[in-house]
Every structure is written in structure tokens, then in C-alpha cells.
Amino acid sequence: MFDIELKNKDVIVRVDFNVPLDSNLQVSDDTRICAAVPTITSLLEKGAKVILLSHLGRPFKDLEDNGNFKPKYSLKNIINTVSENLKRNVVFIDTPLTEDRIKEEIQAVDPHNVILLENTRFYKGEEKGDRELAHKMASLGEFYVNDAFGTAHREHASTATIARYFDKDHKTFGLLMEKEVTNISKVLNDINRPFCAIIGGAKVSDKITLIENLLEKADKIIIGGGMAFTFIKAQGGNIGKSLCEADKLDLANTLIEKAETKGVKLLLPLDAKVTEEFSNDGLYLTKPIGEIPDGWMGLDIGEASISLFEQEILESQTILWNGPMGVFEFANYAQGTFEIANALSKATRRGSYTLVGGGDSVAAISKAGLEDEVSFVSTGGGAMLEMIEGKDLPGLSAILE
Ligand code: AMP
Which backbone phi and psi does 170 adopt, to 5 degrees? Predict the structure, then answer.
């Protein structure tokens, strides 16, 4: 971050305080707020006045009948939690950016304080990356820090356009953003090999670009979860009524062929826990992956798959995990996912680098109670995946240009 004194300087910090609220409009999980504390504290220590910008939900998609924003989208709801995490008072200013008096109100706040502004998505221009709005936001401070990795893949006014109004010496990444980028870069550049990527979750269609880019980087790719069945069916297996994307069978075969050509080992499950109903209650059996009877569906990987995958994980130096191995929300079908989490934790203890993120992977690793046993858990699901897919992240490039 900035290596300069910021005494009496106004610093705008884009954070990701898009936190869940309960029915009493209380923050039910403050992980994201907690994650921004080091950046804010460090700026305060350098003498800055910190002006926080964040979005919360999608207020325009869920308006009151009279066209007003629902109270649950106001950042007023999070003031106390931000204040508790920072262990200091937070000044909330809900004056719209469109009113000039907002500048005077910010100036009236003593230096060394933290100011929280209202939801950036209360402005139509935010999600459109509107220049006029971004300019208004930029005019509130002399410096800009982007610490919202979770929205780095969006070209919004407060995440990307705003940075264009600051020169190189007046904009930078926050500490959380730096940590995310440094960690994700470990699976993109100077990779410590062998590199094993584990991809699970429901649909192949969501992960095509991810798998294609990983074919250029990884030494082996493990495919699990619901998406594995499209590959198995494409290879001629019987998958019963397991999840399958009929229009992606050719693509699955193309990916298998590409992996062969590139010398990437593509590993599919050997067996599955199968059942007749999509619930935790029915009887289940373990069947070879391509021999699932009609009317049955695979909801988790079986023991043979777990052993194979564990062995491959333990023989790797760099491991990326995205997506559960089964319907881990049901206790009977969580074993595959939890065993992968265990294998990652074991590999980490042995000195391998392990990165978890995207989709439900973060929920899965915390459900397994192992989030502190891996090298890094990314907080920015979509942004992490887009970075690994090789896409340009507007929130990053706007700081670098
Ligand atoms: P994703 O968001 O793509 O990571 O997908 C996560 C979802 O995939 C979770 O809600 C899992 O329950 C679901 N899932 C994983 N394996 C299966 C499976 N074999 N059948 C149906 N759903 C699955």
C-alpha cells in the first residue's frame, strides 16, 4: 500500500461490505468487514481520514412498491459492526453524492476518523461504470485505495472508473486485495509443480473457461461433483438420472482430448454414492461411476475415488480447489467433499501450497472446519475464478494503468 505519510489526507477506500443481514437487519456474518480492517487501520496509522465506499446487495432489483429502496439495503445497518471491528467510532453520512454539501460534511469530520457513505448501488450509474458518478466519488478524496477484491471483476463506477481520476501516485490496492492477488498468482505464474486443480460443483457450463485455462497451467485436473457425470456419460457410461448437461457432451469429450494432447492428466471419479431421491433420507449404495442403474443418481464420490484423488493431491506441490465433490449440504453425501478438504489440509502440512475459492468451496471448507488448515481461502469467488480464467479484472487494471 502507500508508503507515504497521509497526515490530514482524505483517502477513499472501496471495500466489500456486501455482508448478509438477518431479519432484524443485523450483520449475520462479518467476515468481509473483518477482512478490510488491516487496510483501514494502516491508513489511519499513517494519519489519513478514511472515507469508505461499498455496495450492499442489489437495491434496484428489489425496490419497495412505491419505488423507494428497501431499508435492508442501507449501509446504516452495518455501522455498529464496522465500528466494533475497527474498535472506533464510525461517522455515517447518507447525503447523496449528487448534493454538493456532502463535501462540506466530510470536511467537517475531524482527521483520523472513519466515514462510511451510503450504498454505492443507490446510484443508477454505479453498475454502468458511469463517469460522472465516478468523478463525483473521486472528488471526495485525494487518494483512492481499492480493497474490494470480491468486485474486482466488475467495471463499476466505484471499483474501476473512479481510479481513472487519480494518477499512479494517488491510487493503490489495499492489503486484502494485495493478498488475494499474490495468492492467486501462485497458480498462474512461476507455479511450483506438480500443480493439481480440483474442480467440482454442479455444472460444466459454469466452468468451461476455467477448465480450458487450467489445461494450459495444470499438470492434473480432478473433476468431481455433479459436473463429472456429463464427462462420464460422454465417455459412454451409464449415469442413471444423475446431473447431466446433454448439450455439453461433445464439449466434455473435447476437453478430455485436449487434456490428452497437452499431457494433462484428467481424473474423473471411479465410483459414486447413488440414491433414488434427491434428499438425505433415502437408501444409498456405492456403484462404479459408469454403472449407475436407471432411476438412481450419484450425489457424492465413493471411497475408491476419494483414495485416488487423495493420492494425487498428496503428490502435488500446488493445489487449487473449486467446487464440492457432491451434495455436501446433505450429511450422507458430504464425505467426498470433506475428505478432499482433509487431503488439502494434509498436503498443506507437508509443505504444499493450497488455494481454495469460488462458488461453494468456501462454505464447504468452513463446514469441514478446515479453513485455517489450507494456505489461502479466497474471499472473492467470481473475481478469483475470472482471474484464473485469464480474464482482465477491471478493478485491478484501473489501478495499474
Ligand atoms: P458450484 O456453485 O458450481 O460450486 O456448485 C455447488 C453445488 O453443486 C452445491 O450446491 C452442490 O450441492 C451441488 N452438487 C455437487 N455435486 C452434485 C451432484 N452430484 N448432484 C447434484 N448437485 C451436486
Answer: -115, 10
Residue owning the nearest CA to atom 12 of ligand 1: 327
CA of residue 227 to ligand 1 center, whole Å: 8
- Give the contacts of 375 (CB within 8 A, at least 6 positions apart): 183, 348, 352, 353, 354, 355
All structural domains of the chain, each given as residue ranges with its CATH number in brackets, are 10-178 (3.40.50.1260), 186-388 (3.40.50.1260)
Q: Whose CA is nearest to atom 18 of ligand 1?
A: 226
Look at the chain and count its residues. Answer: 401
Main-chain phi, psi angles of 197, to 5 degrees: -105, 130
Q: Give exposure, 205-235, as e/b (b: 16+ Cβ within 10 Å).
A: ebbbebbebbbebbbbbbbbbbbbbbbbbbe
Q: What is the pLDDT of residue 305?
A: 98
Q: What is the pLDDT of residue 341?
A: 96
Residues recognised as catalytic: 32, 203, 359, 382
What confidence tier does 4 reach under pLDDT thresholds 50, 70, 90?
confident
- Farthest-apart Cα atoms in the chain, separation: 71
Ligand 1 and 206: CB distance under 6 A: yes
Alpha-carbon 235 to chain mean position:
32
Order of strands, sheet of 171-173, starting from the edge strand that comes earlier in the sequence: 90-93, 114-117, 49-53, 10-14, 143-146, 171-173
243 lines ligand 1 (CB under 6 A): yes
Per-residue model confidence as pLDDT tens digits over 351-382: 999 999 987 888 889 889 999 999 999 988 88
pLDDT in tens, 348-359: 999 999 999 987
**Which H, E and C letters describe 179-201, residue by residue?**
HHHHHHHCCCCCCCCCEEEEECC
Q: What is the pLDDT of residues 249-286, one digit of tens each?
A: 999 999 999 999 999 999 999 999 999 999 999 999 99
User: Which atom of ligand 1 approaches the CA of 322 most closely?
Assistant: 4
Q: Are 59 and 10 in contact (CB under 8 A)?
A: no
Q: Say what the pLDDT of residue 130 is.
A: 98
Q: How far apart are CA 3 and CA 20, in angstroms?
A: 34
Q: What is the mean pLDDT of residues 225-242?
A: 97
Peptide bond before residue 194 is cis, with ω within 30 degrees of 0: yes
